[in-house]
């Protein structure tokens, strides 16, 4: 008998028909002999409906009260799903976050889970019940209702898997797994059977929005095996774990990309300690998030500094940078909001040389100029002109042969 | 500084505009120097919407899960009202039933309040907050969410008033008080300034649906002064208390009536011990509620037995009674579902003779035949032909001079 935690997002529970379909699925697993804990989100649209009510009253509603309001969304789903399970002859029991002591800090609207008391759930499972838990919510030590912020249901599922010492955390979504790249850009894109947490983090943060970053971090920290599956289609999905022996280990797992960013460069800044802080400090103070940061070695006592921000913040960031430039005595400020970022991601590149050169060579062959380059241990990102995005992604997908299933490589780890 | 508990029903919080209007009202009271606890229901229609969702899945949803579902209705209202209060510059804090430890038994969908821990609310009030509590709900000793059944918000308000030792429990409704009878039938009907718990119980149970019976019982038991007021109009409403010295004490407080009932009579039943049980036992077993029960003294070794049921249960009750009649060897069964019940209610009749004769004389003068009579200490009820209902109510209202404000009677209590 395996204990499995299954998480169903808002689309998966978006209608009563879908809730009934999930009840069917859970009951089938239970009849097969598994023990089941389901974590559910609010029915799709419900959170937005509640938010709109609050905003109609107040443009900045009290965060504590907003959590009281929003947490009703999942509470409706847990009750309906439990009713649907019981209709099928299997006992079920629903719990809100506070009822199973999902203890969080007091940061309303973006709380973090600190502790979960698994005893109550284990008692129910022993009695043959399917347990249905509200995702996205908990309570602080004074019993105030908190929410984890959007997408927090994934984190609830992972945290429950860890606390219950369950075998696997299955995240049901509207896609059937994680792909080598976006199939809308590269029709040959292939579903990955396995992936490491690190790769998933790089792919998620770069735009393949399948899982919440915080949930993957949490899973990595607590060694919780995560599986991404489709709510609507059959299949094995993508299993995300630590790097383990015998695992298929391709050089490159996938290619992520986005066109949400804009690039800003300050040229000819006097090259002395603290320059990065003086450039990025005012940007951070204006609440503008920065993604890539690139600074090359200086020349003639000056240096050039480039960073990317979300396109929505581009004009504001440009203005701030121009002020900093005059303060710092920099030569020039340049900006470009017609850029695309492409990243190749894979733990394989740790031990295999030549990934970077293949990447750069491939782009060069297509006549695509690379504007900036930034690398991490398992990722190489380049910024190119926006119009070459699809051409670049397709060329790289083909160059790394991602359309082919990798042969297993026995690892000596 | 007075501590007041104010309860707002579903119609009073039915739209965001009405929620804002209640926030205005609460803030005005607070600025005047009162301490305030608001108890609110779900926005009108919401409970029915949630019930419909559950019933679409299952005709008999699990009662525990139904409570998880339905309790979200008030939770939405407490959050929205708190947000609206804070918008007006007064701090507010919302609580679900379980958060302020409204401890109930485990009878889901019809739980009874056992205990309330007032400490948390007192702490908030000391800090100048308006406290907003979800009506209708609580939690059992294991933390399972329970609901008190329809209208339970009144009971929550009364129980909180008792637990907090507040000065008054104000129930805001869509009427501006309790009337001597239904103003749609008797345009001269007058709002009562004061009323005793007992009178309110008789009037409420007989059809003047202003307050929940359980809430009035609870208020009576804990000596909580109850005031019924309009959410939409100004006015003093009706204050409901124990009978106290110096209180206005009319002979008759009001006239209640209904046409929801049907009458069944079994004639010529052998008059021996246990006969009432043998007649009503099978009716109760069929889950049919019985209102009036009338049995006169027997004659010739047999007796006649009459009772009333809800019209919806009439045919079923008739069938059961026919079976009982043949078992018991009774002579005949008669039924009539075209009846009306009129009751005159007043604590004054305890000490004043002649109320019954005035009532019967008045009806006789109008040519209205009385089919059955039943009395309690502060009430006389008669069953008449349905078509005479309005005529009877108007004649009695006039005969007891209910359109005139009573002169104060000094009591020697």
Automatic annotation (TrEMBL), chains A, B:
<keyword id="KW-0547">Nucleotide-binding</keyword>
<dbReference type="GO" id="GO:0009089">
    <property type="term" value="P:lysine biosynthetic process via diaminopimelate"/>
</dbReference>
<feature type="binding site">
    <location>
        <begin position="209"/>
        <end position="210"/>
    </location>
    <ligand>
        <name>ATP</name>
    </ligand>
</feature>
<protein>
    <recommendedName>
        <fullName>Aspartokinase</fullName>
        <ecNumber>2.7.2.4</ecNumber>
    </recommendedName>
</protein>
<dbReference type="InterPro" id="IPR036393">
    <property type="entry name" value="AceGlu_kinase-like_sf"/>
</dbReference>
<keyword id="KW-0418">Kinase</keyword>
<keyword id="KW-0028">Amino-acid biosynthesis</keyword>
<dbReference type="GO" id="GO:0005524">
    <property type="term" value="F:ATP binding"/>
</dbReference>
<comment type="pathway">
    <text>Amino-acid biosynthesis; L-methionine biosynthesis via de novo pathway; L-homoserine from L-aspartate: step 1/3.</text>
</comment>
<dbReference type="GO" id="GO:0004072">
    <property type="term" value="F:aspartate kinase activity"/>
</dbReference>
<dbReference type="GO" id="GO:0009090">
    <property type="term" value="P:homoserine biosynthetic process"/>
</dbReference>
<feature type="domain" description="ACT">
    <location>
        <begin position="264"/>
        <end position="338"/>
    </location>
</feature>
<comment type="similarity">
    <text>Belongs to the aspartokinase family.</text>
</comment>
<keyword id="KW-0067">ATP-binding</keyword>
<dbReference type="Pfam" id="PF00696">
    <property type="entry name" value="AA_kinase"/>
</dbReference>
<dbReference type="InterPro" id="IPR054352">
    <property type="entry name" value="ACT_Aspartokinase"/>
</dbReference>
<feature type="binding site">
    <location>
        <begin position="173"/>
        <end position="174"/>
    </location>
    <ligand>
        <name>ATP</name>
    </ligand>
</feature>
<feature type="binding site">
    <location>
        <begin position="7"/>
        <end position="10"/>
    </location>
    <ligand>
        <name>ATP</name>
    </ligand>
</feature>
<dbReference type="Pfam" id="PF22468">
    <property type="entry name" value="ACT_9"/>
</dbReference>
<dbReference type="Pfam" id="PF01842">
    <property type="entry name" value="ACT"/>
</dbReference>
<feature type="binding site">
    <location>
        <position position="179"/>
    </location>
    <ligand>
        <name>ATP</name>
    </ligand>
</feature>
<feature type="binding site">
    <location>
        <position position="184"/>
    </location>
    <ligand>
        <name>ATP</name>
    </ligand>
</feature>
<dbReference type="GO" id="GO:0005829">
    <property type="term" value="C:cytosol"/>
</dbReference>
<dbReference type="InterPro" id="IPR001048">
    <property type="entry name" value="Asp/Glu/Uridylate_kinase"/>
</dbReference>
<keyword id="KW-0808">Transferase</keyword>
<feature type="binding site">
    <location>
        <position position="74"/>
    </location>
    <ligand>
        <name>substrate</name>
    </ligand>
</feature>
<feature type="domain" description="ACT">
    <location>
        <begin position="344"/>
        <end position="413"/>
    </location>
</feature>
<dbReference type="InterPro" id="IPR041740">
    <property type="entry name" value="AKii-LysC-BS"/>
</dbReference>
<keyword id="KW-0457">Lysine biosynthesis</keyword>
<dbReference type="InterPro" id="IPR005260">
    <property type="entry name" value="Asp_kin_monofn"/>
</dbReference>
<dbReference type="InterPro" id="IPR045865">
    <property type="entry name" value="ACT-like_dom_sf"/>
</dbReference>
<dbReference type="InterPro" id="IPR018042">
    <property type="entry name" value="Aspartate_kinase_CS"/>
</dbReference>
<dbReference type="InterPro" id="IPR001341">
    <property type="entry name" value="Asp_kinase"/>
</dbReference>
<dbReference type="InterPro" id="IPR002912">
    <property type="entry name" value="ACT_dom"/>
</dbReference>
<dbReference type="GO" id="GO:0009088">
    <property type="term" value="P:threonine biosynthetic process"/>
</dbReference>
<comment type="pathway">
    <text>Amino-acid biosynthesis; L-lysine biosynthesis via DAP pathway; (S)-tetrahydrodipicolinate from L-aspartate: step 1/4.</text>
</comment>
<feature type="binding site">
    <location>
        <position position="47"/>
    </location>
    <ligand>
        <name>substrate</name>
    </ligand>
</feature>
